[in-house]
Design a protein that fits this description.
The protein is an alpha+beta fold and 90 residues long. It has a single domain (11-88), classed as 2-Layer Sandwich (Alpha-Beta Plaits). It has two helices and four strands; from the N terminus they run E-H-E-E-H-E. It has helices spanning 16-29, 53-70, and strands at 7-14, 33-41, 44-51, 72-79. The chain has a four-stranded antiparallel beta sheet, with helices on one face. The chain is globular, with a radius of gyration of 12 Å.
């Protein structure tokens, strides 16, 4: 069973400053909430937001552009309808 209407968006950056810049831009660009961040090792940081699909897509796009201006974006992803068991991972 999927979590309804609560998409997840991710931006993974190399370095903390790019992650902060990306998170700030995501939160300002759309009606999303910060789910958190995780240090994934070797200086990589993943920032996660949650909201409706359109808002998360817009937020990830804005966050990616902002983070890339000050650092390196390694990966981005939007999961439109994550399975409820995904809550364990994030």
């Amino acid at each position: 069973m999927a979590v309804t209407g609560r998409a997840l968006g991710f931006i993974e950056t190399r370095g903390f400053i790019a992650a902060v810049e990306g998170a700030d831009a995501m939160l300002k660009a759309a009606s999303v909430s910060l789910q958190g961040y995780k240090k994934t090792g070797s200086g990589y940081i993943a920032v996660m937001v949650r909201g409706d699909v359109a808002a998360v897509k817009a937020a990830v796009e804005a966050g990616t552009e902002a983070a890339a201006r000050v650092g390196e974006v390694v990966a981005t992803q939007v999961i439109a309808s994550p399975h409820e068991d995904m809550e364990q991972m994030v």
